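Students often ask why inverse folding is considered easier than folding. One informal answer: many sequences map to the same fold, so there is more than one right answer. In these notes we will look at a single instance of the problem. The structure comes first.
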């Protein structure tokens, strides 16, 4: 499991990323906003970013912050 820190509006948010290589999936969680999601290696690009942003938008994050967080999560998972 990897723990990444996301900074937005001067606040630090911890993002937990678990990669299951055998099942080719990721599980991502942000405990501070009580959010989690999972996706497969096959899900990529703007479609995945849009899905993550839509899911994050239903939390304590506004639309812009949700989009930024979705892009960061996508970037971090691509690096793994």
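Output (designed amino acids):
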């Amino acid at each position: 499991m990897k723990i990444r820190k996301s900074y937005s509006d001067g606040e630090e948010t911890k993002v937990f990323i678990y990669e299951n290589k055998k099942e080719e999936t990721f599980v991502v969680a942000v405990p501070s906003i009580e959010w989690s999601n999972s996706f497969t290696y096959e899900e990529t690009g703007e479609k995945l970013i849009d899905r993550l942003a839509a899911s994050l938008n239903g939390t304590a994050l506004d639309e812009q912050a949700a989009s930024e967080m979705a892009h960061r999560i996508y970037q971090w998972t691509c690096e793994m």
